[in-house]
Amino acid sequence: MTTITAKKPTKATSKDLPADAKTQAKIFLIGMMGSGKSYWADKLKKKLKVPAYDLDSLVEMMEEKSIKEIFEEDGEEYFRKAEAKMLRLFSEKKQFIVSCGGGTACYNDNMKWMNKHGITVWIDEPVETLCERLSKEKFHRPLIKDLDDQSLKSFLKKQLEERTAFYDQCAYRLNSKELSETTFLKIIASNA
Ligand code: S3P
């Protein structure tokens, strides 16, 4: 795993990328719920003009149900299988930015599969930040919808401890100081 140090990042733009870098960009964004995977996928999509996909939304489309309904009606194990199946469809695609679900990295050998088929980037935000973001938008997230703020914090802390072994298998780990478009462009350029 490479930790990017971006103490004083020079301002890179997509023009600085090697010509074939964009066409080869295959990025899997992983990390906890609320870490900003979808936000960054959307930002990068605009910057790079590379298609971005949200794995949860694709599963919802495939199942014609919300994630909350899938958990309630079919159970988590069913969801994990559907998620892994959807993920594997990316082996056919030439360029993409995928924002994974928080648990994607931790089930069905998905981490190994993603490392084989693209670049895995862990967006590693502190539990305090996750808590702040998620307390306002937990209702559609089946794993945390019934938790009050105190329980949410302990849940996320424990979950991060359990999931770190999986997230740690990423190619790049970015914390809040290193999160910038420039850092992402550098990662894509160095993997072109
Ligand atoms: C989950 C995270 C969710 C979604 C599901 C399970 C998890 O995705 O896949 O509710 O196990 O952490 P987000 O990380 O996009 O909220």
Give structural notes.
The chain has 192 residues and is of the alpha/beta class. Helix content is 46%, strand content 12%. It has eight helices and six strands. Mean pLDDT is 91; it is low at 5-10. The chain has a single domain (22-190), classed as P-loop containing nucleotide triphosphate hydrolases (Rossmann fold, 3-Layer(aba) Sandwich). A six-stranded parallel beta sheet has the order 1-6-5-2-4-3, sandwiched between helices. The chain is globular, with a radius of gyration of 16 Å. The structure holds shikimate-3-phosphate (S3P). Shikimate-3-phosphate (S3P) is lined by residues 33, 56, 67, 101-103, 141-143.
Task: Give the helices and strands, then pairings.
Elements: E1 2-3, E2 26-30, H1 37-48, E3 52-54, H2 55-63, H3 67-74, H4 76-88, E4 96-99, H5 110-117, E5 119-124, H6 127-136, H7 149-167, E6 172-175, H8 181-190
Parallel strand pairs: 1-6, 2-4, 2-5, 3-4, 5-6
Helix pairs in contact: 2-4, 3-4, 6-7
The structure holds shikimate-3-phosphate (S3P).
Q: In brief, what are we looking at here?
A:
With 192 residues, the protein is α/β, with parallel strands linked by helices.
Count of domain modules: 1
Assigned CATH superfamily:
P-loop containing nucleotide triphosphate hydrolases
Distance between the termini: 17 Å
Task: Give the helix level as a range of percent.
Answer: 40-55%
Largest pleated sheet:
6 strands, parallel
Helices and strands: which structural class? Answer: alpha/beta
CATH class category: Alpha Beta
Major beta sheet, strand line-up: 1-6-5-2-4-3
Percent strand: 5-15%
Total number of helices? 8
Number of strands: 6
Identify the CATH architecture.
3-Layer(aba) Sandwich
Rg computed from alpha carbons, rounded to a whole number of angstroms: 16 Å
Low-confidence stretches: 5-10
The CATH topology comes to: Rossmann fold
**Ligand catalogue:** shikimate-3-phosphate
The 3D shape can be described as globular
**How do the helices and strands follow one another from N- to C-terminus?**
EEHEHHHEHEHHEH
